[in-house]
Amino acid sequence: MYSQGMIKVAAASPILKIGDAMHNVQEIIKCLNKVEQKKVDIVVFPELCICGYSVADLVFQDYLYRDNLKAIEYLLNNNPFHGVVIVGTYFIESDRIYNCCLVIQNNKILGIVPKCYLPHTNEFYEARWFVSGSNCPFNEIELFGQKIPFGKLIFDNDDHLVQFGCEICEDLWAPMSPHETIYANGAVLIFNASASPEVIGKGDKRRMIVQSASYRCNGAYIYTSNSASESTSEVVFSNHKMIVENGDIVSESHNIQLDDDILIGDIDILKLHHLRKTNGWVKNIHRENIEQLRKISYSLSKTNDFVFAKEMDILPFVPKNKEDFEHIIDMQATSVKKRLDYIGIEKTVLGVSGGLDSTLALLSLCHMCDKYHMSRKNIIALTLPSSNNSSTTYQNSLELMKRLHVEWNEIPIHEHVMKQLETIGHDGKTKDVTYENVQARFRTFTLMNTANLHHAIVIGTSDMSEVALGWSTFNGDQMAMYGINSGLPKTVIKATVNYYKGIYPEVADILDSILETPISPELSGSNQLTEDIIGKYEINDFILYHFLVCGDSEARIVYFLERFLKLNKDDAIKCVDNFYQRFYHQQYKRLTMPEGVKILNLSLSPRTETRLNGDIYKPKN
Asked: Are both 373 and 275 inside the same structural domain?
């Protein structure tokens, strides 16, 4: 059921008998009973699946068409499904035969969409039987006492958020596909009823073209093909099913079989609308240059809750494959190397605390040196301990620098910090924000001066989560000459450090220790735990993703936190309030953040992507 901006869709293929329309409709009804139980909203069945795609010259026989119409009428009178059904069939008008999608809700035909592009090569002979619906001379047909809209249509629900269209098999593959016009007219979902024979390698091409169509238009694409029960006379049909959202596979099955098969997936409609609002192609479409499609009304049942087909990813930023981690470390290494080449130097200065961020920065600089055949002695790593550092982080930082064979030094800062506190009239005992920030600023002061001495640049370690929450000291760790981690949230920092264990096994045990150590700024003692102050990074990164990538409202994020991170409602509201309060009030720090490359599908850079004033207010709920 449609809820929380989510819609559940299905791609199905029934068990078919070629030319036996009544049998096929009864098998379709069996599938409809199953999707009704799963609370699906819209389901698509394969091309010509009422009569069977392989009927060939039988489409010229009157008896088959009569059987086809009787089967459709039976489906209308016995439809157990309350959502929208899209099913492949054919219709004859003025002795012209059209390969079509029939769109049904309950016992009513909402509209009929004809196929535009008819394949007529290799195993395909469709131009022998059908005519294209591209320039149909009529826009409705009379059927069962109703006048049914016929042609290029968009189906529009009550709140106008879930508009969808249909195309049939070859339409997807055409250079100027119908889905381009359908998406441009406001549809966010395309359903494709297909009959696609299987040959080795074709599945990859189907997947590529579906993902491309969905991604280019910030839409969802639901594809189904018939199963091997269709016919194996000359080809085997693929049974390929895909549910794709903005280029990402939500669900997929590609198992050649004789049984019926149903694939179910959830589509985030509100996310798609947000992506379109932030994507220039939508507002730059010249409406006068595109064909305007008729809109047909339909309804979606609403509920207060949504039964998800699968759990939502609670670590949405974190890559799920090795190749993505390879890209992360290469992008970090290459970005710094390019900056050094531009300046005409080879050296970097880095403060190493024994925490996650500085550890990843150090590993990335080592990777840069290895990748570009530079000496690691070009990395000047400093540990700057104060009386508030724990022995664990201190020893980890020393051991890490030694084993990685970088140029390193230890500069204790306690006496310098005390001197500065005394200079400004602080008692040196009260562990307030001034006490903490003097340490952070003195470390940056020392790193900057060291960089000048060695003709180097200071590499900043602040990550995207800290940048979002303003968890840094202004003109302290907030400042650097290049921010290597600014494109990665804390959850990805942690996962990437873990990935480096396989690249630099000589420090794997130290990396394990760093990964297990609670996150702390250690500015007032090692028992000062960051997540006790600003909240769990896993939660904050989840909120960051849904706020800026998906455009979700506070209420919707609260709902997701309850549902997927298992927070109670009060705690979820507190987490969201905390995030928004910090995000808006700390924008002034982002306005002067150092440059650093975008790595994921989000950047907080005020120069390129997240453009906000420094005195912006948090919106009221």
From this structure: no
- Report yes or no: 252 and 241 within 8 Å, Cβ to Cβ: yes
What pLDDT digit, counting tens, does each position of 469-498 carry? 999 999 999 999 999 999 999 999 999 999
Question: Which tens digit of pLDDT belongs to each residue from 59-110?
Answer: 899 999 999 999 999 999 999 999 999 999 999 999 999 999 999 999 999 9
Owning domain of residue 43: 6-297
229 assigned to some structural domain: yes
Start-end of H helices in 410-568: 414-423, 433-453, 464-469, 490-500, 508-516, 530-534, 537-544, 554-564
- Rg of the chain over CA atoms, in angstroms? 30
What is the average per-residue pLDDT within 165-170? 94
Q: How far is CA 603 from CA 12, 245, 252, 488, 611, in A?
A: 39, 21, 30, 9, 10
Query: What is the token pair recorded at 252?
Result: 């997929």
| Paired tokens of 276 | 């379109």
> What is residue 432's three-state secondary structure?
coil
Kindly state whether residue 365 falls inside one of the protein's structural domains. Answer: yes
pLDDT at position 287: 66
Place of tokens 């195309």: 167
Q: Same domain for 212 and 89?
A: yes
CATH code, 154:
3.60.110.10
> How far apart are alpha carbons 31 and 89 in whole angstroms?
17
Question: Does residue 239 or residue 448 have the better pLDDT?
Answer: 448
The candidate with the shortest Cα–Cα distance to 604, out of 620, 583, 619, 582, is 583
347-364 pLDDT, tens digit each: 999 999 999 999 999 999
DSSP annotation string for 243-273: EEETTEEEEEEE---SS-EEEEEEEEHHHHH
Spatial contact of 461 and 477, defined as CB atoms under 8 Å apart: yes
Question: What residues pair up with 140 in beta bridges, in sequence order?
Answer: 149
DSSP label of 548: I
Q: What single letter denotes the amino acid at residue 326?
A: E
Return all residues near 252 (Cβ < 8 A) that are at least 6 apart. Answer: 207, 241, 242, 243, 263
What residues are paired with 106 via a beta bridge? none
**Closest-CA residue to 494 (of 467, 529, 470, 465):** 465
Q: How many domains does the chain have?
A: 2
To the nearest 10°, report the CA torsion of 414, 419, 421, 423: -170
DSSP string, 78-118: T---SSEEEEEEEEEETTEEEEEEEEEETTEEEEEEE----
The domain that holds 518 is classified in CATH as 3.40.50.620
Q: Which of 502, 531, 560 is the last residue of a domain?
A: 531
Instruction: Among 513, 531, 549, give the residue marking a domain's end.
Output: 531
Interval 562-605: pLDDT, tens: 999 999 999 999 999 999 999 999 999 999 999 999 999 999 99
- For residue 414 the two structure tokens come to 């306690």
φ and ψ of 291, to 5 deg: -70, 130
Percent of the chain with pLDDT over 90: 80
Token pair belonging to 27: 């098998």
Q: pTM of this prediction?
A: 0.91
Report how far residue 4's alpha carbon sits from residue 615's, in angstroms, rounded to the nearest whole number: 32
**Residue from 184, 109, 122 nearest 148 by CA:** 109
